[in-house]
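Bit of a strange request maybe. I'm writing a small parser for structure token strings and I need a real example to test against, not something I typed by hand. Could someone generate the tokens for this chain?
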Amino acid sequence: MSTPTTATHSDEITTSMTGRELREIFGAVLPHAGTDDTLPPITMLTLDVTGGMLHVLATDRYTFGIVRHPLTEGCASNFTLTLPARAIQAVLRQIKARASLTVTLSPRGLTIDQTSEPKLSYRLPAGDERPLLPDWRTWMAQRARLAPDSVVTSPRGVALNPAYLARFRAATRNGSPLEMRPAGHCMVITCGTHFLGLISAMNLTKQHATSPDPLADWLPTPAEGMAA
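Reply from user aminoacidic:
Good idea to test on real output. This should exercise your parser:
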């Protein structure tokens, strides 16, 4: 369980948490980070500290994930930094779920001190890359409020890439369901109050025009006169 956050310096925020909590925060969005090194911005996680809340964002342009974690009310520090997703993954592999941690955030980077045995420290300096979506709140709000596109609301239903959809499983906690709703040509996905994401629907309009409805073979036509 996280303990109340304290500030050690004017531009630092320090909080205590377990290894499990750290994994839940970063693990929820890491599947959405890109791996194409020719496009460095999509290989980074954005950490946004504002109003006592930590938001962590990742996207490879096909899916988008945001997780939030409360720090403390009245926290005066507001800043944004980027960290390489691979560096976060490497650290998480070393930290056990039951480990006790002290996590320090600042514009210069992220420090994770393991206070339980074995005592270890991980220091991840902020990346040189600017956030891919510096005004992500406005960007997300504009998309989430769009009326559903006809592709998403077609009679054949919504077509989603299963490989991309599987990424959102990492956001679930304690059996929390994923909730989806159409917006524009995307599906907005939420999980509890801690996760928000987007996934683009696949446009199968041309394929539908030349292929039968797969549901038809599963639902035979009722015999004439049979009650509904």
